[in-house]
Amino acid sequence: MRFLDPTNDYAFKKIFGDEKKKEILISFLNSILDRREEGLIVEVDLLNPHQVPHLEGAKETILDIRCHDQRGHEYIVEMQVLKQQFFDKRVLYYASKAYSCQLGEGEDYGKLSPVIFLGILNFQFTKNLHWISNHRLCDVETKEHKLKDFDFTFVELPKFVKTEEELLSVSDKWVYFLKHAKNLEAVPEVIFEEAIKEAFGIVTQGAWSQQQLDVYERRKMALMDEAARISSGFHDGKEEGRAEGLAEGLAKGVEKGREEERKAIAAAMLQNGCDVALVHHATKISIEELKTLSPIQAISRG
What we know:
This protein is of the alpha/beta class. It folds into two domains: 9-230, no CATH class; 232-297, no CATH class. It has helices at residues 9-16, 22-32, 87-100, 170-180, 194-202, 210-231, 242-271, 276-283, 287-290; strands spanning 44-46, 64-69, 74-80, 115-121, 132-137, 147-156. α2 (22-32) packs across α5 and α7 (242-271) crosses α8. It is globular. The two termini are 39 Å apart.
């Protein structure tokens, strides 16, 4: 059995943008955004349902998944394979535009609903050692979260270094699917969640029509062309070599990722008052080494 690459933007939207299989998107959002109890998403209304595009260049066909949940909160879910110049500004622009477009002329500000941006990135974007990071508008000193209508979460695939045997949470399994499905020959035995198994079924190559495979391959080639353009330098050549340096850095990061992630988790536990012996048992880091960790290394999901 062969699986196609879920990070291909056409495949990504085929998985998460199907009106008839919204339970897949709901599972993905709830696990990655760590939604629990009263915060659980139970229903979504897709704002840009998937259609097979009529493509020539195909550049404009598939950008993101957008939906509302049962409370009216708006979600933008984007798969971004290549690091682009001004990506941070584009994220802010998308979120602010989605927010401002909720109001018509003369309507009350009270009708505005939160906008949650979820970026799945195939490159390193933040300095956070963990593979998932959450960004909010908070008071610099008190950390008060008063401006609550914007929330940004990034999943950085190069930082995810867990093996199949180490998959514990649903979010672990979703990210493992996104990163490794194209190299697998069967659904891992540790994955028993129906939504994720359904996602594997969607990217099974034998289930795709020739027209769909043609779209997939064209998107793949377009991505390769874009990668070549970036590797030769952005526009005027001022950033020539940046992509090569990034690739080298990612390789080293993957090699060191597991150890650094354990240290970051240990630092977070210590910062939150956990007993050293408990942290040692949970992370397998020696007590002597734990004493050298600085709280600044701590990670947080926000």
